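Look at a sample.

——
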Amino acid sequence: MRSFNRPSLSMPVVALALFGCTPDYDLEKTNDGVDEIDEKGVPDIEPSPTSVSFGSLSVTEEASSSQTVTIGNVGTADLHIYSIELEDEDAPFEIGAVGSVLVQPDASTTLSVTYRPVTSANDTTFLLISSDDPDEPVAEVELIGEGIAPVIDIDPITYDFGTMYIGCEKLQPLTISNIGNDDLIVESLSANTASTDLVFDAAEDVNGPLPWTIAPGAALDVWVDYAPLDEYSDVQYVTVASNDPAAPTVMATQKGVGALYGETVDVFEQPINGSTDIIFAIDWSCSMYDDVANVGANFTTFVSTLAAMDADYHVAAVVADNGCMLGSDTYIDNTMSESDQQSIFSTMACLDYGGSSCPKMGSYTEMAFTLLEAALKSSNIGSGGCNEGFYREDATLALVGVSDEREQSINPYTYYISLFQSMKADPDDVVLHAIGGDYPTGCGGNEPYTGFYEATLATGGTFLSICAADFGSSMEVLAENSAADLTSFELTDTPVEESIEVKVDGIVVVTGWSYNYATNTVDFADGYVPEGGSTIEVDYALMGDCEG
């Protein structure tokens, strides 16, 4: 039994309106003390029952339960009830009107108590009945009930992405949990923001279409994606509507701010046409007769593709150990007719295999790297070499190995790549291509073209199968990948893609170009390539350290 202060016998009747009645009596005031009480008798309160259980009730169904509490007087004098109240005023119990505030000896009165839960909870409190019982001035009746209801919880209810560099991105989950004891029905979700940098994703591909049912103790995730594109502060409010009776709508807040890491502009001058020097190093062995003939038969496709690209090209083929180009004309260029180019290539590649100009099979027959090294050493202007005038310092350099055997030069392919790239200010101006047996198993009895295959991968070149049925298409691809590219402009730094602004001759261009993440280039589509002599400016924000 709890201990309470005993009220004075002269305490007035209080809170009568609570009991729904108006007394027609007055408590007799006396100061005669205990002797007078003994003469008149003593009231003795006895509530029944002393504990009331209302059971489990569904909040969503607005269920309620009422129970009757009897207040008896087992004493020898009238019992006066002063007040009836809940120990916890916020407990979901309602006290009805008491039948009478004066209870004669051996009599009783009643009142009703109604339990109407508001959320998932084990609700417990005490009904406190104050009276003039001298031994028990406050009698207690325990009230017990359980509310059955879903309870929504969102974590985190507030999230700050902090300051992020423009172009960076972060995903933050919002976990919607049911911490109640009945199914939670998520009826709708909505995101409210003035920013396009914050994007809400209900992940319905994973969670299924709304509405969602979340069992007690279960949870699911939705997502907020933050990718700042400016230096303004951003805020978003995600509102979740559910059948939680206590909180039918809950709002979660996300915020962040973007910061500029830096910005720059790259300037390019478009050449009048692309200058490209191309050398074929051909394996001139007996087993290569059909393959070399196939290359020669489709050479017209190769040079016509170069011409269509408006390329300024020098093309040569070498088969001799000294790397010299065979024939009276030392190399092919874009000023010649296609028939002349075909004739010169036939001579250079010794397509007749028995002509007077064809050398005997040499020591470097299956050493394309060695042939290319020899050819380039004798190509520089002023060198006095047999190929003088072919090589141009300002042109891109495409080197093509052709063989049905593995590459057999004495040094590893990495040595030759470094050697060739050292000839250019920009190593990317050197690309190696190959026509050979398929990697790694070979094809049609031809060995895999190892050594040169790896070189194509290392320099971004093209590997073509020597067993291809359609060699015309192969030669077309080779030409496209050998000519100087006037459509693509490599940026000096990593950009924030959405910040890129392109100008051609000072005029902003919004169509006809795209950013290639893999190559870090701005690429122009056919029909939109800037004309020769144009100035291309690419202005962009720098991508910052997104991990920091």
In short: The radius of gyration is 47 Å. The chain has four domains: 16-148, 152-260, 264-269+488-541, 274-482. Confidence is low (pLDDT under 50) at residues 1-35. The first strand starts at residue 45 and ends at 48.
